[in-house]
Specification:
Elements lengths: L2 E8 L5 H12 L6 E8 L6 H11 L3 E6 L5 H11 L4 E4 L11 H9 L5 E6 L7 H17 L8 E8 H8 L8 H7 L4 E6 L13 H15 L2 H31 L6 H33 L7 E4 L1
Parallel strand pairs: 1-2, 1-4, 2-3, 5-7
Antiparallel strand pairs: 3-8, 4-6, 5-6
Helix pairs in contact: 5-8, 9-10
The structure holds uridine-5'-diphosphate and magnesium ion (MG).
Magnesium ion binds next to loops.
Length: 307
């Protein structure tokens, strides 16, 4: 029988963990595969690890990795992918926002229809603040415009992959990981399943607007170099503008003289150009800082305990 590894990243999820386990076992009882559940404790401060241990005592198929601190969901997913032994590998949130009842259908996509990966996307953003949905949409529009890697709007991390695809993902060792991009970058045939947004069963979301903004900037920096070109383009545009203005003032002075005026305009121009220059330096800094962090080659996570 084929083996299916399910990776579940958890951060402060003591309430959701047992609920997830019960629901998962119940909904996947009819599947003709052997299971392996890999829970990853991303440095939780509550009883998440104790909840894992309790599950492990009941069920040998449960494994866990516990981090020395919070490394973020991206690191947790990577640790799970490294530990997975299965022929098929799935990633799921513990809060049951990723319905386990979709798994049989996902497996069919791989086994019968020959896909390498079956991924999911939410078609609605019900229950999410309007402003957040708006910015999320704009982010997907922007990144797909400037990046060659396709980032699907509403894509979740919930997906089922073949061993071959996971091995390819594991070859990408970068420290700042943006999985939505990495999954797409490795290629392979992906089938998309759509479903309505589900509210989480217990606990609360670990994401706020600020964290999402930083995460989206990571995505842009990781998968596009277009912002770097922006500085050069603006430089050329402003040089042309300056040249035209020089001509204009030269002709104006020759024919109409040169009374001193235009102090406010001067201030505006200085501020505008100064702003653009600082912005460009900032963009450079973003790429440089990423490069700096990557060259240190620090591990993606540190495991304190595994079972
Ligand atoms: N998570 C994690 N590390 C973190 C933040 C979140 O492992 O630093 C896990 C979390 O426990 C959950 C999943 O990632 O299983 C998705 O998080 P959440 O439900 O908070 O995100 P949302 O569904 O609201 O986007
Ligand atoms: Mg969630």
């Amino acid at each position: 029988m084929k083996k299916l590894s399910v990776i579940v990243p958890c951060y402060n999820e003591e309430a959701a963990t047992p609920l997830f386990y019960e629901t998962f076992i119940q909904k996947t009882a009819d599947m003709a595969v052997e299971f392996e559940l890999i829970f990853v404790d991303d440095g939780s401060k509550d009883g998440t690890l104790a909840a894992f241990r309790a599950l492990r005592d009941r069920d040998e198929r449960v494994h866990y990795i516990s981090f020395s601190r919070n490394f973020g969901k991206e690191s947790a997913m990577f640790a799970g992918l490294e530990a997975a032994q299965g022929d098929y590998i799935a990633i799921m949130d513990v809060d049951l926002q990723d319905p386990p009842e979709l798994l049989p259908q996902m497996l069919e996509g791989i086994e019968q229809e020959g896909f390498d990966c079956v991924a999911t996307r939410r078609v609605t953003r019900k229950g999410e603040p309007k402003v957040r949905s708006f910015f999320a949409r704009q982010f997907y529009k922007l990144i797909n415009h400037i990046s060659k890697t396709e980032i699907v709007d509403g894509a979740r991390d919930f997906r089922l992959m073949t061993r071959q695809m996971v091995n390819s993902i594991l070859e990408l060792k970068e420290v700042s990981r943006f999985s939505k991009g990495l999954f797409s970058w490795v290629g392979y045939q992906t089938k998309w399943l759509e479903y309505e947004n589900v509210e989480r069963v217990a606990g609360e979301t670990k994401w706020n607007f600020w964290k999402l903004l930083v995460y989206s900037i990571d995505g842009i920096i990781g998968f596009s170099t277009a912002p770097l070109a922006l500085a050069s383009v603006m430089g050329v545009v402003f040089c042309l503008l300056a040249f035209l203005l020089m001509l204009y003032f030269l002709i104006k002075t020759i024919f109409w003289g040169d009374p001193v005026a235009g102090f406010p305009a001067l201030i505006c121009i200085i501020l505008l150009l100064g702003g653009i220059q600082l912005f460009s330096v900032g963009v450079l800094g973003q790429y440089l800082s990423k490069t700096y962090l990557e060259t240190k080659k620090r591990p993606i996570y540190i495991a304190k305990e595994r079972c």
